[in-house]
Amino acid sequence: MRRLTKKKALTLVKELDAFPKVPESYVESTASGGTVSLIAFSLMAILAFLEFFVYRDTWMKYEYEVDKDFGSKLRINVDITVAMRCQYIGADVLDLAETMVASDGLKYEPVSNIHIHCSFTLYSSTLLHIIVIAFLTVKSFTSNFRDDSSTSLHACRIHGHLYVNKVAGNFHITVGKSIPHPRGHAHLAALVSHDSYNFSHRIDHLSFGEDLPGIISPLDGTEKVSADSNHIFQYFITIVPTKLNTYRVSAETHQYSVTEQDRAINHAAGSHGVSGIFMKYDINSLMVKVTEQHMPLWQFLVRLCGIIGGIFSTTGMIHGIVGFLVDVICCRLKMGVYRQLKVNNTQLTLHSKYWISMGIYERANLYRFQ
User: Domain Endoplasmic reticulum vesicle transporter C-terminal, which positions (predicted)?
Assistant: First the structure.
């Protein structure tokens, strides 16, 4: 009984076989089929190779959500060189809540104007920019950066970082050191002569949040030369909180966009203001989440099977259609030849019958005369 049950089960399984094997004696190999097979295998190999590169590649997915972190501090990373002595200028931050942030995290480093001149064209990206900088360097820097033999340190490099409240604010560098004030803050600018004002500057680096390697900020390498002593430079910055999550780095930082303008201060002409460098920043309420993604292995295998199966089926269908059309055309030609041969054979048969009947008629006449 068990053997019969096993035989029935095997028979049932054989009947459900969706891939029956055809005997080799029933299979006919042709040159056209071999050519199509070579083309199909070549396409499979090329597309599978390209699909492997797609599998290895990664891409960035961008998502947006509301930034709910308002209690943390915002870090400002600064590296700016100004064409004035360090004792004449001061840098600080005043936020929207009228809270002044002390510049304890910033360092004032006296540098020479020669150092500024040498690195002035470091960030130039085009030939026109280099020519303009060379012209301005010869014409303006010779007058603005006075090179005395006794004192050679005419510029000041301000670098370091500050922690501020996560609200809109104003980071500025102007004349005089900052002092606290009941209504905000003030700078001791009365002791500095107007002739020594020169806010020509170079921004080596300015970023917000964690300083990550490889991130280029828009203002890095910006260079400005003021032709007048009373000049104001303004940068309007919009900060976007960014959460970065890649296979190498996972951090929270900030990106920013910037627009800028500068003008000479002339109270008689109606251009009012305070000489200096002002960076007014605002924080966007939306956060950008950047996630590095990779194709999963199962998706790669599914796509690979689709490529192989699709090419195999498509080439088989094309080969079958072309073969069918060739057979139809060839059969029509053969039918035309066959018809011509049939007509010729009919004419020959009628002709032979005529001559046979004539021969029989002549023989009958001969017998009659005899």
Answer: 154-318
Query: How many CB atoms within 10 Å of residue 229?
Result: 16
Task: Quote helix, strand, coil % in the chain, to nearest 5.
Answer: 40, 35, 25
4-18, 155-169, 234-248: lowest mean pLDDT where? 4-18
Which of these, 222, 231, 232, 206, lies nearest to 119 by C-alpha position? 222
Distance of alpha carbon 160 from the chain centroid: 32
Give the Cα-Cα-Cα angle 106, 94, 200 (nearest 5 degrees).
Answer: 60
Compute the radius of gyration of the chain from its Cα atoms: 45
> Which alpha helices (DSSP H) does the chain contain, by range?
2-15, 31-56, 113-118, 127-136, 142-144, 297-369
Interval 209-228: pLDDT, tens:
887 776 778 999 889 888 88
User: What does the block give as tokens for 251?
Assistant: 């951090």
Over 104-138, what HEC string results?
CCEEEEEECHHHHHHCCCCCCCCHHHHHHHHHHHH
Distance CA 262, CA 278 (A): 10
The answer for residues whose C-beta is within 8 angstroms of residue 287's C-beta and 6 or more apart is 64, 65, 66, 67, 240, 241, 242, 243
Distance of CA 141 to the CA centre of its chain: 40
CB-based burial label for 155 (10 Å; 0-12, 13-18, 19+): buried
In the chain, where the domains are located: 68-116+151-284
DSSP string computed for 239-272 = EEEEEEE-SS-EEEEEEEEEEEEEEE-BGGGTB-
Higher-pLDDT residue of 132, 309: 309
